[in-house]
Design brief:
Belongs to the chromate ion transporter (CHR) (TC 2.A.51) family. The chain is about 80% helix and about 0% strand. With about 400 residues, it is an all-alpha fold. The radius of gyration is 21 Å and the shape is globular. The chain starts with a helix and ends with a helix. The model has no long low-confidence stretch (mean pLDDT about 85).
Length: about 400
């Protein structure tokens, strides 16, 4: 009985923290990794630094919404499969509800241009900078790994395609496999995944089964709901690089086919930029425009289902693979590349869309100091950022 109560307390704690992050995590997927690092790793210590870095590397490698998958993974490690679901629900549902409401109201508001939204973008600069500094110290301690990170920065910024990120990670894995196979890490990761390999295998089989069967069922039934599930599931399954990459794919799926107009799509895109949480929740807006609140919920379920199946299917095997010395060397290379990818994303789009004037830079420095030196909770930084952005907009 006590064990069951403890399990419920763990799930409740996951729900409370993930929901708070869901209401306050502005700035896109890279910023989300910064918020997760600050809350789950630095404050709660639910995972060690090395395990978090490995989880981020895995989720960068998988298709789908990387930051959401990291949140799911942390929830799974902390509270099992239910923990992963609760973590996802808390982090995602605030923006799902907001975007479903925006589906009805967004046309009457220019919220994407509001001053407080700009302030929240500056918050993302401070949070991501803090996370990158911490991760870089751990993951690029020597010249070889610093060089891998540098190459990743240059490649990501100069070669901007849908497959750049996955290509850089694959090359880094090969380089790490060659250079670091015989090198032992001073800090061993310690992560236990409370999911059986049988369940993991079932999840992977279901992932590929749905990917293959849904288009066939769509053709056979000609049912609009099945068609919508297929479009969102395929979008969530085949996109590398996070939310911004999935947007053009969703536009091709729904605008030319007449599901919604170009104006409706762009209005929802503006709304998605203005709310916290994962950008994949843009699907909730599209689904609500197409089929009301039922469509919004179905679209959200369909686009995130592949992420769930992939993280459930890979985490149990990931733990054993990391014990292999050759795989560990490859991971060292991948982790260094991830630092470079994060730095590149910190510059574009986070820095370039947030730091537009000297006042913005000064405000970012204040927020960074509040977070790093004064050790204030992230939610205080978020509130200060929103108020400060509103005041800056009045100047």
């Amino acid at each position: 009985m006590e064990k069951k109560e403890n399990k419920l307390l763990v799930l409740w704690e996951i729900l409370l923290i993930s929901t708070r992050l869901g209401f306050t995590s502005f700035g896109g997927p890279i910023a989300h990794l910064g918020y997760f690092h600050e809350e789950y790793i630095r404050r709660k210590k639910w995972m060690d630094e090395k395990s978090y870095a490995d989880l981020v590397a895995l989720c960068q490698f998988l298709p789908g919404p990387a930051s959401s998958q990291v949140g799911m993974g942390i929830g799974i490690v902390r509270g099992g499969a239910l923990g992963g679901m609760v973590s996802f629900f808390g982090f995602t549902f605030p923006s799902v509800i907001a975007l479903m409401v925006f589906a009805l109201l967004m046309k009457n508001f220019a919220i994407a241009d509001a001053g407080w939204i700009h302030g929240l973008k500056i918050v993302a600069v401070a949070v991501v900078a803090h996370a990158i500094i911490g991760m870089a110290k751990k993951l690029t301690p020597d010249l070889k790994r610093k060089t891998i990170a540098l190459v990743a920065i240059v490649g990501t910024l100069l070669w901007q395609t849908a497959y750049t990120q996955i290509g850089i990670i694959l090359v880094a894995a090969i380089v790490g496999f060659v250079l670091f196979t015989n090198k032992s890490e001073q800090e061993e990761s310690n992560i236990s995944v409370p999911i059986s390999k049988k369940f993991a295998t079932f999840s992977l089989l279901l992932f590929f089964g749905l990917l293959i069967s849904l288009p066939i069922i769509r053709e056979l039934t000609a049912n609009n709901w099945i068609a919508m599930i297929d479009s969102f599931y395929r979008s969530g399954s085949l996109v590398f690089g996070g939310g911004h990459v999935v947007l053009p794919l969703l536009e091709r799926e729904f605008v030319p086919t007449g599901w919604l107009t170009e104006q409706e799509f762009l209005a929802g895109y503006g709304a998605a930029q203005a709310v916290p949480g994962p950008l994949f929740t843009f699907a909730a807006y599209l689904g609500a425009v197409i089929g009301g609140w039922q469509g919004g919920l179905l679209a959200t379920f369909s686009i995130f289902l592949p992420a769930f199946l992939l993280i459930f299917g890979t985490l149990p095997f990931w733990g054993s693979l990391r014990e292999n010395p050759k795989m560990r060397g490859a991971l060292m290379g991948v982790n260094a590349a991830v630092v470079g990818i994060l730095i590149a994303a910190f510059y574009q789009p986070i820095w370039t869309s947030s730091i537009l004037t000297p006042i913005d830079f000064a405000f970012a420095a204040i927020l960074f100091s509040m977070l790093v030196y004064f050790k204030l909770p992230p939610w205080i930084i978020v509130v200060t950022g929103a108020l400060g952005g509103w005041l800056i907009n009045l100047i």
